Amino acid sequence: MSAPTVQVETRGPVALVRLSRPESSNSINLQMAMDLLAAAMTCSRNNNVRAVVLTGAGRNFCFGGDLRAIASEGVDGGYLRELTGYLHSAISHFVRMEPPVIAAVNGTAAGAGVGLAAMADLALCGKSSKFNLAYTNAGLTPDGGTSFLLPRVIGARRTMELLLLNRPLPAQQALDWGLVNEVVEDGELLERALELAGQLADGATGAFGLTKRLVAHSLGALESHMTLESETIASQAASVDGVEGIRAFLEKRKPDFSGNGAR
After folding, report:
1. Is 233 within the bounds of a domain?
2. pLDDT single digits (tens) 96-127
3. Which of 46, 147, 152, 205 has the most CB atoms within 10 Å of its CB?
4. Which residues, listed in sequence order, are joined to residue 61 by a DSSP beta bridge?
5. Could you confirm whether 217 is annotated as catalytic?
């Protein structure tokens, strides 16, 4: 049996959840989406876990969906619907669990990786970190809760700027826009995240949990919105632009979107 693509390590009352496909920059395939849901359920069911840190193994946090795996499974939408189903359920668990969740964004967060940062209660990143939505560059639409969470975190106009122009957002601007709470030296990122998690774990965790529940209640439409995201990205992946965008990404060339989205 292959090792889980998401590792969970408990350090006292803190659970360290590490995305563990570093050779693929922690891009999300079906197995990782399933493992991430299992990790979220493990954290939420363990009464000894009082805070959670989510980070990526290797140089990068998460490059979003694994387009190579998506292309190899065909573009009929079934694979993407299953992948996003597990991913979105994992995000829902992290948002609604009682322990506070801290995202420690190392390197690049792209696509759904930005959604994993946005769904956290607190987010830190290294000075060299950057964020890039990247969906429309590949002829795709958002998933990972990004089209729901980002407008609430950074505002609708800034969200549309990132989604339509696909420009990288550097660490300092991510801080200025409110996508992260703190920027630290790259080599100190995990240490700082664990320090903050330890501080939360020593606090009034009952009050933290109820506070999270109140905030989560304000996100009541999150799950239904993520279902819409799943259906939209699955259908778009099968479109002319989606097929061309994924192929161009894998071939490392500029896509030709002259198909204008026609099926």
Report:
1. no
2. 999 999 999 999 999 999 999 999 999 999 99
3. 147
4. none
5. no
- Outline where DSSP puts E strands in the chain: 6-11, 14-19, 51-56, 101-105, 108-110, 122-126, 130-132, 169-170, 182-184
Separation CA 49–CA 228 (nearest Å): 32
Asked if residue 16 belongs to a domain, the reply is yes
What distance in Å separates the CA atoms of residue 228 and residue 242, rounded to the nearest whole number? 17
Catalytic residue (choose from 35, 66, 121, 143): 143
- Sign of the CA dihedral with 2 first, then 237, 140, and 253 last: positive
For residue 88, indicate whether it is catalytic.
yes
- For position 157, which CATH number holds? 3.90.226.10
Active-site residue among 88, 93, 121, 241? Answer: 88
Token output for 187: 């080599």
Please check whether residue 53 lies inside any domain of the structure.
yes
Instruction: Look at residue 44 and tell me if it is in a domain.
Output: yes
pLDDT of 182-218, one tens digit each?
999 999 999 999 999 999 999 999 999 999 999 999 9
Range(s) of the domain holding residue 24:
6-187+205-216
